[in-house]
Amino acid sequence: MINMLKLQITYKQRLITICLFLLALFFLNFSNHISAEDADPSLPEGYVLTTLITGANRGIGLEFTKQYLEKGWRVIATCRKTGTAEDLRLLQKEYPDRLIIDRLDVRNHKRIDVLARKYKNVPIDVLLNNAGISGGTSNQIFGRFNYDAYNTVLETNTIAPLKIAEAFYPNVRDSQQKKIIAVSSSEGSIDNVFKRGGRLFFYRSSKSALNMLMVNLAYMLKDRGIAVGLVNPGATGTDFMSGLPAFFPLRKTEDAVEDMIRNIDSITIENTGAYLNYNGKTISW
Ligand code: NDP
Question: How far apart are CA 175 and CA 276, in angstroms?
Fold first, then answer.
């Protein structure tokens, strides 16, 4: 009889322990889920701020993904090869309910349309055009220009952000923050050519043209309440800069992204069309 009683108590204790454990799990998950609303009481109840990022598997795009997740946002992280996006997979273990990984080669317009249909009715607060390529320095030497490489640079850096803005416009329109952002470069500034000298014809012109497209969009979408902006990370130590000599001063990716997020936060309908350096100052066109 005493043995039976002992068994019953042990069973009850186990049951209570399991219930308490499940309750703790529920609250942990719940607090993670609502952290974005906690940060901004002006948002509708249950609303989670969302960003869609291109080229999110490495470099600046990966860091954007990390930092937006840390801020409590939902991130739709897109990249060319989801199968080998190890860093994104690791992040997904940490943020299973707020990180979505999807396949997107930004040069593939059909795929952009497929994704726009897939995410129909999902508000996107910050549409973040980050994917970009330099085109390789050896392809951009006067007298030996590689025009196929130039096409690829334009398709990736210039045309894709416009196509993506067009395809995901309804998602941005129906969001709370309503921002279309492109990662540009100070190399896209025509003014800077006279200070820095002639180089990187393809890359520079792709970013200048990107700037022009985004300012056009800013003008067109202002009345619809959508803000458009261009941000520059500064020379940052990603694969993008791997060909440079070791003494060349490069910014930490974490710092570059922290600065750009602060600048994206500062872009509103009032300063739409802004072209912001990492330090918050306007870059001259
Ligand atoms: P990285 O070379 O480290 O990363 C580039 C990213 O873009 C990768 O995720 C790459 O994917 C992706 N990408 C390239 N082509 C495509 C494509 N067709 N479709 C989808 N994704 C693609 O560069 P950064 O992270 O440094 O650069 C990010 C952005 O910042 C670029 O727009 C760049 O111009 C800009 N920038 C960078 C500076 C720097 O100093 N690092 C300075 C100024 C601007 P994959 O892995 O598949 O190749």
Answer: 23
